[in-house]
Amino acid sequence: MVIIGFIVNPIAGMGGRVGLKGTDGEAYILALKKGAKPVAPRRALEFLNSLTISNIEFYVAPGPMGEDIILKSKYGRSKFKVVGSLKSKHTTAEDTKRVASEMVKEGISLLVFVGGDGTARDVLDAVDLKVPVLGVPSGVKMYSAVFAVNPKAAARIVEAYVKGYTMEVLAEVMDIDENAYRRNELKIQLYGYMRVPVISGLVQSCKEPSINIADEEENRIAIARRIIEEMEPDTLYILGPGTTVKTICDMLGLNKTLLGVDAIYNGVLVGRDLDEKGLLELLKKYPKAKIIVSPIGGQGFIFGRGNQQISPKVIRLVGRSNIIVIATHRKMRSLETLRVDTGDEEVDRMLRGYIRVIVDYNEDLVVKVV
């Protein structure tokens, strides 16, 4: 038997669809007020139910941090032990750190956690390099390199780890200043490294920052010029985060958020820093629509990381044929494929396959989405 620790941050990712950029501190309360629904329990359950091996035993965190979820999984009441206790029904970072430390003392071989970059930082504080760790992605951003690309990939990695087929690397734990993020500023910091079992193609890289050099800026301007020239009248354009997309609005004289999701119609900004609800309301008013997104540097995600406001429901309404992907030459040189992880397998399947990426004024690439 291989003993696997299992910890869930039950509030991770709740801010995504409601446009809050995270759930640290008071943002969790605001997320609830805006009608946010839990994300992490569903992602945790998908991971557990995707496992196909039997020679494992789980040491799980109490209540909503693990126990409640494993009881709903195919494992039921078998093959797990509850480790630690919670101070109250409202879980905190200190709960994660304390339970993770106790699991290490109990002799786990691998710690699997469900959350985002903030949870990764908490696990790093508690575990350091004592045991290997794997993240099941359930946050808003997930810029760290300790996460599987999706919950099913995490299950495949755990299976390979148990069979001795993985290699182990030191992977970066990154996080941002969420208060600065809400002010439209991206401040990323390296907090440390954790040991991560890896299968090629199933673990994401850390985010590469945008570079403001002359050639890169000229490339963005050329892409923006082309997009503007090809814009259709009476069409809603939903604009994802990022510097490449923001350049379009800069050239139109519009004040787009750098890190939010905005919308323009006939050259007018009709929505700024929108959440899923705001996007759906605009789509009722302007049913003819297109989505413009740029992949995350180093990771390749076009949906499911940092733009969860563009939800599966929004994507279905707009349609795959109306998705425009833009990226600079430098960004695309670092990516072999593009990725999606919307949380809806049917939508992910719809998005997979080959898609055209605009990389310059007169140049496109055809790239596979996986």
Distance between the termini: 33 Å
Number of domains: 2
Tell me the fraction of residues in β-strands, as a range.
15-25%
Q: Which blocks of ≥5 consecutive residues have pLDDT under 50?
A: none
Order of helices and strands: EHHEHEHEHEHEHEHEHEEHEEHEHEHEE
CATH topology of the largest domain: Rossmann fold
CA gyration radius, whole angstroms:
21 Å
Biggest sheet overview: 7 strands, mixed
Defining key terms:
single chain, 370 residues, alpha/beta, 2 domains
Can you walk me through this structure?
The protein has helices at 27-33, 40-50, 67-72, 93-106, 117-127, 151-162, 178-182, 214-230, 243-252, 276-285, 312-318, 329-333, 345-351; strands spanning 2-8, 56-60, 80-82, 110-115, 133-137, 167-176, 188-198, 236-239, 262-265, 268-271, 289-293, 301-303, 323-326, 339-340, 353-360, 363-369. It is α/β, with parallel strands linked by helices. It has 2 domains: 2-198, Rossmann fold (3-Layer(aba) Sandwich); 214-369. The radius of gyration is 21 Å and the shape is globular. The chain starts with a strand and ends with a strand.
Produce the secondary structure layout.
Blueprint: E1 2-8, H1 27-33, H2 40-50, E2 56-60, H3 67-72, E3 80-82, H4 93-106, E4 110-115, H5 117-127, E5 133-137, H6 151-162, E6 167-176, H7 178-182, E7 188-198, H8 214-230, E8 236-239, H9 243-252, E9 262-265, E10 268-271, H10 276-285, E11 289-293, E12 301-303, H11 312-318, E13 323-326, H12 329-333, E14 339-340, H13 345-351, E15 353-360, E16 363-369
Parallel strand pairs: 1-2, 1-4, 2-3, 4-5, 8-11, 11-13, 12-14, 13-15
Antiparallel strand pairs: 6-7, 8-9, 9-10, 15-16
